[in-house]
Design a protein that fits this description.
- An 8-stranded mixed sheet has the order 1-2-5-6-7-8-9-13, with helices on one face.
- It is globular, with a radius of gyration of 18 Å.
- It has 8 helices and 13 strands.
- Helix 7 packs parallel to helix 8.
- About 30% of the residues lie in helices and about 20% in strands.
- Strand 6, helix 4 and strand 7 form a beta-alpha-beta unit.
- It has one domain: Aldolase class I (TIM Barrel, Alpha-Beta Barrel), CATH 3.20.20.70.
- The chain is of the alpha/beta class and about 250 residues long.
- It binds iron/sulfur cluster (SF4).
């Protein structure tokens, strides 16, 4: 099990799988040196030990891989995490794009579990250009509606990539389902760049350290558009953190 405390944050980051079956071309987890392209899963014993040690704490669960990816159907490690979280009263902020099996849904508790759903847009063709194996827009939306109706807190992780209009569409269509927004412009990795044949906008990207990132001026414009459209609290993440002054945080 991968877990570590993040400086200045109240929680531990936690993953049970290394590498992810969802196949997002922008995925930074696959590009980090420690991933080594090697698939790996936690064990039941590790999960039990960590949750026993961290009784009453809080974990961000699903940071570098989706906990409910294909492997979960066979290995059921995320199910074990949910059960250990209930047993030891460990709060989980669950980061996912997946649809949870019913067996997992039955373990959820709104007092312990909250969710963060990520979207690059609401247009399925656009989503499939970057995400090869994620549930599509409506599938994720239905899951959010179900969780919201059961009293779970949901954060929308909005991840603009190339076209801000695609992200604004998701923001609008999911309105009312989330209580907070996290914004993070995604980077494009050099190794994947050939896949984006429609990338005429690449001229607006700066290249650094094998990654392309939208220039700051355009990211600022995009954030202004998101602020104009949103009715809830916004937090900026990743490379956008340096623009936090725009949402009243330093
Ligand atoms: S779902 Fe998340 S962890 Fe999995 S491939 Fe996509 S970006 Fe990476």
């Amino acid at each position: 099990m991968l877990w570590k405390h993040i400086k200045d944050r109240p929680h531990y980051n936690c993953d049970i799988y290394r590498q992810c079956d969802m196949g997002c071309l922008y995925c930074y987890a696959d590009c980090l040196p420690f991933s080594c392209k090697k698939r790996w899963s936690a064990t039941y014993e590790e999960i039990e030990r960590v949750f026993h040690e961290k009784k009453g704490d809080m974990f961000h669960f699903g940071v570098m891989s989706d906990p409910f990816q294909e492997r979960e159907y066979a290995q059921k490690l995320a199910l074990h995490v949910l059960r250990q979280s209930n047993k030891h009263k460990v709060k989980l902020l669950i980061g996912t794009k997946a649809i949870m099996p019913e067996e997992h849904m039955r373990e959820l508790d709104p007092d312990l579990h909250s969710f963060q759903f990520s979207f690059i847009g609401a247009d399925d063709r656009f989503i499939r250009s970057f995400e090869l194996g994620t549930p599509l827009f409506n599938e994720r939306k239905i899951q959010m509606e179900r969780l919201k109706s059961q009293g779970f807190d949901i954060t929308l992780r909005l991840q603009p990539i190339i076209y801000i209009g695609k992200s604004l569409q998701a923001l609008k269509e999911l309105d009312g389902l989330y209580g907070k927004i996290k914004v993070e412009h995604l980077k494009l990795y050099k190794k994947n760049i050939k896949q984006f044949s429609f990338l005429d906008n690449i001229k607006y990207y700066t290249f650094n350290d094998n990654k392309y990132l939208l220039v700051e001026e355009l990211r600022r414009d995009n954030i202004k558009k998101i602020l104009a459209e949103s009715r809830v609290d916004i937090k900026l993440h990743g490379s956008d953190r340096c623009l936090s002054y725009m949402v009243g945080r330093h």
